[in-house]
Design brief:
The complex is a heterodimer of chains A (391) and B (143).
Chain A: E1 5-6, H1 17-24, H2 42-61, E2 69-72, H3 75-89, E3 96-100, H4 105-116, E4 120-124, H5 134-140, E5 145-151, H6 163-172, E6 177-181, H7 193-196, E7 200-204, E8 215-219, H8 247-262, H9 264-286, E9 291-293, E10 304-309, H10 314-321, E11 325-326, E12 328-329, H11 342-346, H12 351-355, E13 357-361, H13 368-388
Chain B: H1 5-13, E1 25-32, E2 37-45, E3 55-63, H2 66-79, H3 92-98, H4 106-142
Antiparallel strand pairs in B: 1-2, 2-3
Classes of the chains: A alpha/beta (391), B alpha+beta (143).
Chain lengths: 391, 143
């Protein structure tokens, strides 16, 4: 039996072979294994040079300055550092945060923790398309607001927020700091930290053919945003994130980001290829009937396609396609919590449709044959389950 | 979620999915699609005048999780040849254990139990009606 078709690139991507080779160079006795914090010998110097080169690579790939890159263990830590770091530093200015109901848990859970500590959080409800209207942000801002946190590309439906417009709203409101979770963005759409107007931006390596366990928080130098550190012990990363840097991870992220931006023509061609594959997938599955697209096609990145299926129970749908496909579901039934996707619920889908959704995410290694197998697997599963369900 | 081999087998085959029609067939359903679980059984009893009759065929339709579909399919298979009764071949809790369903799915097993009881009652009524009709036809023929 063939291995299931992997269509879960939004969950994680395989590490690029060149990236893996670069990482391996930082591990063994022959390589750059030194502690980048060791300034007393050449091994440390060489490791530090690797770290700084990677910092420059990431910065160049996302339109930032190298001194704006703070290494973290991933986007979750970057989100935590941004939210708690700003909240702790500016707590005397006010205790109010604005975010959206459709954010990743790595933003929502820190916000809920702040609520437990006495902060107020406004959770904006996006339009049905998934877009947060900048006017909503404007209405939510208060004198007490110290941070707005909104994601760039939504991890479930792929809708792209107009960050520049939100940043303009924040700027007009006395420079309220804007944090952007861009974990899903890099490699899927243009990311330009400088022109985005954001003060803080979270990045992840493993969504872009880099390794798991490393990410970065971009902290705008020009806008002078301040953070309080969350961990202490060594003073690395400008005292914002103490701890010995994982040279191989950092080098891997740098290499992955450099590779992704090295060939402009290739990037354009790949975007067109993914676009065509997504259209093929949508047309094939749409023909089954009773399929609803979550998120507006015109506003979403082509790598993600989120669909709800009428008259099909979510957990059974996932179980039926599982032998053939690796996809994500909008149903948390599979984890026995019986909770439908809060993102789709926030966008107005009823509980049944939110549960019976599948997220297909395409990537570098997706082929036409994969798409055709996926269409066949979904069509068979949906048809069979509807027949069993008397529809 | 990982499913037991038994659950996977009956979910994937769902051999008894469908409906029945004809004499001595009763239908019962429970649950709602809106709430996430709906099950319908059709039970066909042997013809005759005995108060207790055996099940000759059973079918199900189900909108629900893999455990729901697998258990409904298993119940239909197991029931054939047994005397018709309101109770399932095994109680809901035992079915949970047999199919290694998590405890929070007991409610779905109870929906299956309710659907089965309704179908069994309907089948008994249909069989009794068929018997009355047959006796009436026989009297007309004799007279």
């Amino acid at each position: 039996m063939n291995a299931p078709v992997y269509l879960d690139y939004a969950a994680t991507t395989p590490v690029d072979a060149g990236v893996a080779a670069r990482m391996a160079q930082c591990l063994t006795i022959e390589g750059t294994f030194g502690n980048p914090g060791s300034s007393s010998h050449e091994y440390g110097d060489r490791a530090r040079a690797v770290v700084e080169a990677a910092r420059s690579q990431v910065a160049a790939a996302v339109g930032a300055e190298a001194n704006e890159v703070i290494w973290t263990s991933g986007a979750t830590e970057a989100n935590n550092l941004a939210i708690f770091g700003v909240a702790n530093y500016y707590r005397d200015h006010g205790r109010h945060i604005v975010t959206a109901r459709t954010e990743h848990k790595a933003v929502l859970d820190p916000c809920r923790e702040l609520e437990r500590r006495g902060w107020r959080v406004t959770y904006l409800v996006p339009e049905r398309s998934g877009i947060v209207d900048p006017a909503q942000v404007m209405r939510a801002l208060e004198r007490e607001t110290v941070l707005v946190s909104l994601m760039h590309v939504n991890n479930e439906i792929g809708v792209v927020q107009d960050i520049e417009a939100v940043a303009a709203v924040c700027a007009r409101h006395g420079g309220v700091r804007l944090h952007v979770d861009a974990a899903q963005s890099f490699g899927k759409c243009r990311v330009d930290f400088a022109s985005s107007g954001a003060d803080l931006m979270s990045l992840s390596a493993h969504k872009a053919y880099g390794p798991k366990g490393v990410g970065a928080l971009l902290v705008s130098a020009r806008r002078g945003v301040q953070l309080e550190a969350l961990q202490f012990g060594g003073g690395q990363e400008r005292n914002l994130r103490s701890g010995t840097l994982a040279t191989h991870q950092v080098a891997g992220m740098g290499a992955a980001f450099a590779l992704a931006t090295a060939d402009a023509a290739g990037i354009e061609a790949e975007r067109g290829r993914i676009d065509a594959l997504q259209s093929r997938l949508w047309r094939g599955i749409e023909a089954v009937g009773g399929v609803l697209r979550n998120g507006s096609a015109a506003l979403c990145v082509p790598q993600l396609l989120n669909l709800s299926f009428e008259d099909v129970e979510g957990e059974s749908l996932l179980a039926a396609v599982r032998p053939h496909l690796a996809v994500s579901t909008g149903s948390a039934c599979a984890s026995a919590t019986n909770e439908a996707s809060y993102v789709l619920r926030a966008l107005g889908r009823d509980e049944r449709l939110a549960e019976s959704s599948l997220r297909f995410s395409l990537g570098r290694y997706t082929t036409e044959a994969d798409i055709d197998r996926a269409v066949l697997a979904v069509a068979e599963a949906v048809t069979r389950l509807r027949r069993i369900g008397g529809k | 979620m990982n499913y037991s081999e038994l659950t996977r087998r009956y979910f994937e085959s769902a051999g008894a999915a469908g409906v029945l029609s004809g004499d001595c067939v009763g239908r019962g359903a429970a649950g709602t699609r809106r709430m996430g679980t709906w099950v319908q059984f059709d039970i066909q009893l042997e013809p005759g005048i005995e108060p207790q009759r055996r099940i000759v065929a059973a079918r199900f339709l189900a909108f629900g999780c893999p455990h729901t579909i697998a258990v409904a399919a298993w119940v239909c298979e197991r029931a054939v040849g047994t005397f018709c009764a309101a109770a399932l071949p095994e109680p809901a809790q035992a079915l949970c254990r047999r199919f290694e369903a998590p405890a929070e799915k007991l409610g779905r097993m109870l929906v299956i139990e309710d659907a089965w009881a309704a179908a069994a009652a309907a089948a008994a009524a249909a069989a009794a009606a068929a018997t009355v009709a047959a006796v009436a036809t026989a009297r007309v023929t004799i007279s």
